[in-house]
Amino acid sequence: MDFTAISQRIADSSPLDFGKIFNNSIELFKKVWLQGFITILLTIVTIIPFYIIMYLPMIWLGMWDPNSFETGELPPTVLLLMFVTMPIAFLGITSVAFCLNAAFLRICWLKDTNQPTKEDYFYYLKGQHFRKAFVLALIMIGLSILGTLLCFIGVFYLMVPLSLFPAFLAFSEELSPMEITKASFALGHKNWLVIFGLILVTGLVAQLGVILCLVGVFFTAMLGKIPTYLIYKETVGLPEEI
Questions:
Q1: Which among 159, 47, 27, 24 is positioned nearest to 93, based on CA atoms?
Q2: Within the chain, what is the greatest distance between any pair of CA atoms?
Q3: Fewest Cβ atoms nearer than 10 Å: which of 56, 97, 131, 181?
């Protein structure tokens, strides 16, 4: 489905039903809670190298001159290196997170439609999918910086359309990163309040896993991602196969 057709479906879609999507999110979560837990673990494992890259200058400094930390100030060279490595690390973390979230939404589609296709957590970490996620990460970071400059009011608004990026990445393979951005903003703007409410409520419910000796949050955290799958399903419609 091309960008024109998707835009038309978004424009013609009925207002989202908060209660329906929330209830369906809970029901679908019962089928994919284990896959959500695996996705969380994979996310943690795959972003560790990027954190190492981020703090590599400090690690190098600690190995070269352990006493340098006693002054409480980092040398200008280390600060400069961290200024270079931090954006690279953030870009890598965001790209990987996009891909794994998209893969989880694809698994939601598999379970929801009883597809026999094998679950593939690294489906979007390959080829053109990852390149597209990389560009989306650049766009997201750029928009986040712009929103921050607007006294955080922009970030508050942007969190809705940006949360839809993984769904369009997963189910709209024909769209370019810029078209995904435009479609996400069109859908997010039209249903901003409902989507924000779903993100907020499911996110709060997901945090209840903390009650289970803290580690329970790893089993419930991905509940907050499921509404984006159902939002896409209700407005744009899902492909027959991926």
A1: 47
A2: 64
A3: 131
Q: What is the rounded distance in angstroms from the CA atom of residue 95 to the CA atom of residue 84?
A: 18
User: Please, what is the end-to-end C-alpha distance for the chain in angstroms?
Assistant: 12
CA atoms within 13 A on the CB side of 219: 12
**Is residue 239 a contact partner of residue 171, using CB atoms and an 8 Å limit?**
yes
- 104's CB contacts (< 8 A; 6+ apart) are 32, 35, 36, 39, 121, 222, 225
Tokens read off for 222 = 């991905």
Q: What b-and-e string marks burial along 189-219, b requiring 16 or more CB atoms within 10 Å of the CB?
A: eebeebbbbbbeebeebbeebeeeeeeebbb
Quick: pLDDT tens for 204-232: 888 776 666 566 677 888 999 999 999 99
Residues making up the chain, counted from first to last: 242
Which amino acid, one-letter code, is at 20? K
Full-prediction pTM beyond 0.70?
Answer: yes
